[in-house]
C-alpha cells in the first residue's frame, strides 16, 4: 500500500518536479565557467569627415578612425569582421561557490520531498490502524447485537409463558435497535476511512481490508521504550532546516567570492576592408567589400573594483542576518520536537496504565453480565439491571480496543517524531 501511495499521491509528484527544477539549475551552474566567443560582421556606408579630440562615446557615437586634414563629405564603404574571445580563467572561488549554492538548493528540495513522503507514509499507517480499530469495533458491535438478540428471544419466551411482562420485550427491542444503529454508524466511519486510503493509494475500496492482528502486534514490533533513541542526524522534520542553514552559509561564501578580483584571458582577431585608401583617396564604393587588413590581439587582464569592498560588506551583513534567522528556526524546530517527544512520553505512560487495567475491567464486566443474565432468567432481577450489565460489557470491550489503538497511535507518533518510521515500515 505504501508503494502505491508513493506512486499515486499528487503532492509527491509536484515535489518531485520541484527537485528536477533544482537539478537542472545545478547542471546549468556547472557551466558558468564557459568563455565567451562572439563573431560579428558589418558592412557600413557613410562619410569619414573626422576631427581629433577625445570624448565619451556612451555607446552611441559611431567609431571613425581617420582624421581628415580638410573637410570632405565623400561617401565610403567599409566592412569589418571580428572574432572576440573572453574567458574568466580565475575568480578566486566564485564558480565553486555558485555550484555549492545550487547543490544546496537542490538538497533542500530533496529534503522537502522526503518530508512529504514521510508524512504521507505516517498518515497512511495511521489510517490503516484506524481501519483496524473500526473493524474490531464492528466485530464487538456484532457480538453486542447477538447478545441483545439472544436476550430478546429469552424475554419473548418468558413473556409468552407469562413469567415476564410484555414491557420487557419492548425494552429489549429498543436496546437491539440502538445496537443496530451503532453498527450502522461504525460501518459508515469504516467506509469513510477506506475512501481516504483509496484516495491516497489509488486502490479500490473493496481491497482495503485491514489485518486486525497488526494493531495487536504493533507494540511488540518495536524495541522497549527505554531503548529508543531519536535519529537526530536524519530526522526528516529537522533536515530541511539544517540544509537551509547550510545553504545560507554557502550563500555567505558566494557573496564573499563574487566580489573577488577577476583574471581574464582575452583574444580577438579582426579583418577590415574599405573604399578609402590609407593615403586618403576615395575609391569606388564596391572596392570596400572584401577584407584587406588582418589583425589579432591576445592578452591577460586583471579587474577589481575598489568599491566592491563596501558592497561586499553590505551584502554580507544582509546574508549573515539571514543565516542567524535560519539558525534560530533550526533551534526552534529542535525544541518543538523535544517538547513533542516529552508530551508523547507522558501519553505513553497513561496508555500503559490503561492497558494494565483493561483485563480487569473485561473480566469484571463479563462476570457481571453472566450473573445478571442468570438472575434475570430465574426472575431475580429486572430488565433494566440486565441492560446495564450488557452496556457495561460492551463498554469494556470497546474500551479495550480504544486503549490498544490509542497506545499504537501514540507509539506511531513517537516513531514518526523521532524520524524512525522507515524502521517500522521494514518491520511491518
UniProtKB/TrEMBL annotation:
Superkingdom as given in the UniProt entry: Bacteria
Pfam families with a match to the protein in the record: OEP
Family statement: Belongs to the outer membrane factor (OMF) (TC 1.B.17) family.
The protein's name in its UniProt record: TolC family protein
Species for this entry: Rurimicrobium arvi
